[in-house]
Fold this protein.
Amino acid sequence: MTQVNALLEGFDNLVEAGLLRRLGAAFARFITSLGPTPAPLALACALLSELEGRGHSCLKLDELAADPCALMGWTREQWDALLDRSGPLPPDAGAWCTALAACEQVWVVGAEEHRQPLVLDCDRLYLRRYWRNETLVARQAASRATRLREVDAARVRQWLDLLFDAGQPGMQADGPDWQKIACAIAVRSSFSIITGGPGTGKTYTVARLLALLFALAEEPERLRIALAAPTGKAAARLKQSIDDALGGLVARVGTALPLAGLAARLPAAGTLHSLLGARPDTRALRHHAGNPLEVDVLIVDEASMVHLEMMAALLDALPPTTMLILLGDKDQLASVEAGAVLGDLCFDAQAGRYTPASAQYVLAASGQITPAAIAGTLAATIAASGDALAQQTVMLRKSRRFGGPIGALATAVNDGDALAAAACLRAREDAALRWLEPARQTDLLGLAIDGRAGAEGGYRAYLALLRQMPPAGDAAAYEAWVKTVLLAFDTFRILCAVREGEWGVAGINQAIEQRLEREGLIRRRGEWYTGRPVMVTRNDHGVGVFNGDIGIVLPDLARADSQRVYFLNGDAVRSVLATRLAAVETAYAMTVHKSQGSEFRHVAMVLPHEAGQVVARELVYTGITRAREFFTLVTPAVAVLEAAVVRKTQRASGLRVLLGELAEKQQPA
Ligand SMILES: Nc1ncnc2c1ncn2[C@@H]1O[C@H](COP(=O)(O)OP(=O)(O)OP(=O)(O)O)[C@@H](O)[C@H]1O
């Protein structure tokens, strides 16, 4: 048997052991079918595919050479078993590059191209599609951020002073008004990022930015604005918040701007999929560089959930003059798909590396002094490292909604301070936080049904409402009742870190259903029982439901013998015949991933026995920040919290390197 065949067999063993996904083994086989394949290439392909499944966009050869076990999360024995089959591997990153560059399946960036499936860019190995997407995002972001518009700074300042509450000019004790700075920065180019934790006023700010754009436009009524988010729910929330904020500004701007009329013309917010013209059964989108979107300003909320492929598609479809504003929390979980684009793009956000020129503009346009400019001695280093993208990124730092214990816990987790996080959870003077540990599943079930001391109200509350169904025939009363049920369900949610096992979504949903039935709170007659909460797991454009939509099964008003699933879309109730929904799952418990873009009064977050590969800081932070008033952590073992909090997810990507290279090219010689 050749070494490569032995290695392929070794991959099958890893698949059996659950260490490698089947696609990884299949991809390595496919590559061997294309031409001569030395063992290092076959191995790199299997690893690359596995890492792609874990959210990485490339395989970093220096990490592979330095510590393959750490990279893959495998034991030394598991790795050595592969080595026995592969024979000696290249000793360092340089040797890996030389070995792979010699293979005909690999395109080395800069060399002649033959549509090879793999790309080697410096010491990063990519699947071609990911390399293309990453370069497109880097180039587009950098070039958009570089092209600055003519802005009348004095006029911007006048408007910002009108739109925001008057503060002291310059810098206040708790720092400058970053919201004003964000608006000033955004209007001067066709790319900007406004990042910040929950409640820091991202939507508050962007509503004022819209008002500013209307005010600066020659014909504001002709400004084509689009609002979008990765999920339907987040999109509806964005529109609602912007409408509320603009409504609150109408009196403030008075006759200076016909804001009420302009706000009324804003379109509904949609998902990025629908904005780009996604079609069933094909990856091809209706909008791309050849058929660009016809929009002047695009605001995208929850940008941390936008994966690499979607971001590339979005930037590709936007004309260079369209103003793109990304809103999101850079510290939240990235999407399940490959890439952590917002996090990568925001790498300078915390430091706020503004050049003196930016600081000068910010002062003129907003009256605010950026801290970097104050530290004048830093100016030279800032100028050297500050690239165009950093100039167009603003981090909001002051949370308006999220002080108190939940805010302190979120900060401790974000800082990787497990001791402080545990102390917050154990301080019992406030009912906002509790930690059930070591918990048994029955503890969780009690919490799910009745809440806990200080935070009463679990699922019993919405299930009790089911018995108050209005009499047949009164459609308005029926809709009002449906809304009450949906809102009551949305006050409490169980969020799980994992899908499988006793502490995963599937196991917990099953246990809750059994318990609710035993207590007579639900009556399961088949799959579509009254009161069953469901989550849509696949977009269905025909039916008009999208992955992540959550609804509740209730009797059809028109036909009591059939069941419909009712969804709340902003303020409106929408329903679909239950049997038309092909892909749904029960949603008493859902994953933290799926909860992004939503908030609940009380969140109970469940971690499994061990942190493993999945349970890391971003996940814990995202779960905590879904809670508005109460947060309960449920863990079968104490140690899992610390293990999760200290582990920061590192997704391999070349985005920062590519942006750095582009920034260097922009530096004056
Ligand atoms: N400068 C401000 N002055 C007064 N209230 C503010 C200010 N900024 C934000 N708020 C209020 O704080 C709350 C949170 O703001 P907002 O919803 O815009 O935050 P967000 O960052 O978009 O939150 P999330 O991450 O949850 O979407 C809102 O009630 C908003 O009206």
The two ends are 57 Å apart (CA to CA). The chain is about 45% helix and 15% strand.
